[in-house]
Amino acid sequence: MISLLIVDDHPVVRDGLRGMFESAPGFTVLGEAAGGVEGVAKAAALDPDVVLMDLRMPGGSGVDAIRELTRRGVRAKVLVLTTYDTDSDTLPAIEAGATGYLLKDAPREELFTAVRAAAEGRTVLSPAVASRLVSAVRAPARGNEPLSAREREVLALVAKGTSNREIARELFISEATVKTHLTHLYAKLGAKDRAAAVAVAYDRGILG
């Protein structure tokens, strides 16, 4: 019998996962948590075999929770179950100590198989996440990749204090596309926010 702790900020998701696992042979759900901080406390108290961990939660992020569980030496294996598969989500989660990473659109049998594998300490990655990790390993070191022409345009506007909405209007693209360019900029420059990206760009002579 594999014991589980479900950590997700959406009650409907928690209810669905609990029902799914409790109706399947070989699993038992010990408890639920609505955020990372609560998840760490319950994982330490309940001692589950596997923690199903969402990443973006108002009650403490999943990555911080994974990092804290690893620091405490909690024996539970963490299987990330989320809707996000961007580099900024997958890499930190794996680096923090997650045993596996699945997306919420995974079929139930795939999820059951992943939980069994995680309980045995085997790494499980969804195909999309696995390909991202391979690409990250093969890519140039972070902070040294050249910026595309469009990324330079976005960066120049950011340096002027232009908002995402104004950048979108200026370049005739959507705000979502602007955010995507910013995410890529941060990764390539090794920056965490707009101010840091501009500072790094000036330091390297990319701007000004």
Describe the fold and architecture:
The chain is of the alpha/beta class. It has helices at residues 11-22, 36-46, 62-72, 87-96, 108-119, 127-138, 149-159, 164-171, 175-189, 194-203, and strands at 2-7, 27-33, 50-53, 77-82, 100-103, 124-125. Strands 2-1-3-4-5-6 form a 6-stranded parallel beta sheet, with helices on both faces. Helix 3 (62-72) links the parallel strand 3 and strand 4. The longest helix has 15 residues, at 175-189. The protein is elongated, with a radius of gyration of 20 Å. The mean pLDDT is 89.
Give the SSE map.
Elements lengths: L1 E6 L3 H12 L4 E7 L2 H11 L3 E4 L8 H11 L4 E6 L4 H10 L3 E4 L4 H12 L4 E2 L1 H12 L10 H11 L4 H8 L3 H15 L4 H10 L5
Parallel strand pairs: 1-2, 1-3, 3-4, 4-5, 5-6
Mean pLDDT over the residues: 89
Strand content: 5-15%
Q: What sort of overall outline do the alpha carbons produce when their principal axes are compared?
A: elongated
Question: How many helices?
Answer: 10
Q: What fraction, in percent, of the residue positions are helical?
A: 40-55%
InterPro entries: CheY-like_superfamily (IPR011006), NreC/VraR/RcsB-like_REC (IPR058245), Sig_transdc_resp-reg_C-effctor (IPR016032), Sig_transdc_resp-reg_receiver (IPR001789), Tscrpt_reg_LuxR_C (IPR000792), WalR-like (IPR039420)
Pfam families: GerE, Response_reg
Modified residues (4-aspartylphosphate): 54
Domain Response regulatory: 3-119
Summed up:
The modification 4-aspartylphosphate is found at residue 54. Helices cover 54% and strands 14% of the residues. It has 208 residues and is of the alpha/beta class.
